Amino acid sequence: MRRFDDLDQREMLALAISLEEEHGRIYADYAAGLSADYPASAKIFIELGQEENQHRRWLIDVFQRKFGNHIPLVRRQDVSGFVRHDPIWMVRPLGIEKVRRQAEQIEQETRAFYEAALKRASDAEIRKLLGDLIAAESQHLGIAQHLAGVELTNEAKLDEAQTARRSFVLQYVQPGLNGLIDGSISTLAPIFAAAFATHNTWQTFLVGIAASIGAGISMAFAEALSDDGQISGRGNPWFRGSVTGLMTTVGGLGHTLPYLIPEFRTATTIAIAVVFVELWVIAGVRARFMETRFWRAAFEVVVGGLIVFAVGILIGNA
Questions:
Q1: How far apart (Å, rounded) are the C-alpha atoms in residues 120 and 8?
Q2: Which of 124, 166, 241, 273 is packed most tightly, with the most Cβ within 10 A?
Q3: Is the peptide bond before 93 cis (omega within 30 degrees of 0)?
């Protein structure tokens, strides 16, 4: 995966062409999915898709004049920092509010991409085109943000501050949740393997501390290096990595600290109870912020945790 800052002007234009082509297809899918229940909104997406195709033609014309006829295939998944968008078949039934949120996210991301590209472009014609595209995407963003006013009910219109909530989820909740899941689950096996292998609470505590801190450092670097946040809007990578690393360490320490109790059975009983509390907290956060049904989230997290927990016990008793 390439970093955005490593792309030259030719590759940036090729990526822009790919993005506009993808967005045109996405909006066409939205229009088809909304046409039956929301015909006015479907018409808006048809027009947006046509404009995206016009932007693609502008980009191709400039690319051919500057770099020739061969356009390299550079896609969003080839460059770090882009948000993954769910395919249309994964978001059915196609509710207008769900579509509005994703369209807004697409336009915010695209405008941020063009703004970042403009700062690095030196050719006058390319800079002019990028400036025109920024203005067009800003207009699209306004349409996406106010699309709810076309056909949404009053109840749905009460859902305000979506952009702020999205930023909060991307910059704090998502990295923190990833860290908590990793710290709570990945450390189960080494901690309980050490506990049942040695029946020594102090040695188990040391293993837990090492596993928790080690996992925290590893996850912090992995998160910070995975996405610079320049285009995705996920915030400063090192701050985000720090949140992930801290929550990973906290997740592991939760069932490590009980082993400060000298009596093995008491310490292990409390540690197991803490594990179940951690798993339910994770399920609750996923249900609250990640739009996952609570019982589904609980099932996924608890089953995964129990499997790792069982592995630790089996290895410890081997």
A1: 9
A2: 241
A3: yes
Q: Is 80 left (phi over 0), alpha (psi -120 to 50) or beta?
A: beta
Q: Convert the pLDDT of each residue in 300-318 to its tens digit.
A: 677 777 787 777 778 877 6
Low-confidence ranges of the chain (pLDDT < 50): 154-161
Q: Which domains does the chain have, with CATH numbers?
A: 4-157 (1.20.1260.10), 162-316 (no CATH)
User: Looking up tokens 């078949």, which residue turns up?
Assistant: 89
Residue type for position 219: M
pLDDT at 30: 86
pTM of the predicted protein model: 0.53
First to last CA, the chain: 42
| Angle value at C-alpha 171, between 210 and 256, nearest 5 degrees | 20
pLDDT of residue 270: 93
DSSP codes joined into one string, the chain: -B-GGG--HHHHHHHHHHHHHHHHHHHHHHHHHHTTT-HHHHHHHHHHHHHHHHHHHHHHHHHHHHH-S------GGGBTTPPPPPPGGGS-S--HHHHHHHHHHHHHHHHHHHHHHHHH---HHHHHHHHHHHHHHHHHHHHHHTTHHHH--HHHHT---HHHHHHHIIIIIHHHHHHHHHHHHHTHHHHHHHHHHH--HHHHHHHHHHHHHHHHHHHHHHHHHH--STTT----HHHHHHHHHHHHHHHHHHTTGGGGSSSHHHHHHHHHHHHHHHHHHHHHHHHHHS---HHHHHHHHHHHHHHHHHHHHHHHT-
Residue 3 · residue 80 · CB < 8 Å:
yes
pLDDT of residue 60: 96
